[in-house]
Amino acid sequence: MATNRTFTMIKPDAVQNGHIGNILAMITNGGFKIVSLKLTQLTVADAKAFYAVHAERPFYGELVEFMSRGPIVAAILEKDNAVEDFRTLIGATNPAEAAEGTIRKAYATSIGENAVHGSDSDENAAIEGAFHFAGREQF
């Protein structure tokens, strides 16, 4: 059964390039309610833990380095069919393949620096949201 919450991060590239406000506007204009939000920075250990599922992949080291290099914006979003609808809103990982009107088409610069993270399942949305937000920070 689909849940109505998902997790996202505005990644260091998009934060550094000043896109926080525009990305948040796209999210809310897409019908999502922001129920948790914070500007924070992942340590190397945090990034390793968050992306542990990719530990054996050749890009893991670069991913950890990238995600810990600067601030991120973490958020829990609410909407019916949240995970699937948000994956549609962010677009393909490769911005060259992302559809017009998606966040990655507008703000990603490459496959590696693709502006935003979006949970890929209801289960991961719950895990990822809990990784970044204590229960009292979720509304």
Automatic annotation (TrEMBL):
GO terms for cellular component: cytoplasm. Gene3D superfamilies: Nucleoside diphosphate kinase-like domain (3.30.70.141). Pfam families: NDK. Keywords: ATP-binding, Cytoplasm, Kinase, Magnesium, Metal-binding, Nucleotide metabolism, Nucleotide-binding, Phosphoprotein, Transferase. It catalyses: a 2'-deoxyribonucleoside 5'-diphosphate + ATP = a 2'-deoxyribonucleoside 5'-triphosphate + ADP; a ribonucleoside 5'-diphosphate + ATP = a ribonucleoside 5'-triphosphate + ADP. Its cofactor is Mg(2+). GO terms for molecular function: ATP binding; metal ion binding; nucleoside diphosphate kinase activity. Its main location: cytoplasm. Its EC number is 2.7.4.6. One of its GO terms (biological process) is UTP biosynthetic process. It is found in: Cytoplasm. The keyword Aminoacyl-tRNA synthetase does not apply. Residues 3-137 form the Nucleoside diphosphate kinase-like domain. ATP binds at K11, F59, R87, T93, R104, N114. The active site is at H117 (pros-phosphohistidine intermediate). It comes from the Bacteria. The keyword Kinase applies. It is an enzyme of class 2 (transferase). Major role in the synthesis of nucleoside triphosphates other than ATP. The ATP gamma phosphate is transferred to the NDP beta phosphate via a ping-pong mechanism, using a phosphorylated active-site intermediate. Belongs to the NDK family. This is Nucleoside diphosphate kinase. It comes from Flavobacterium araucananum.
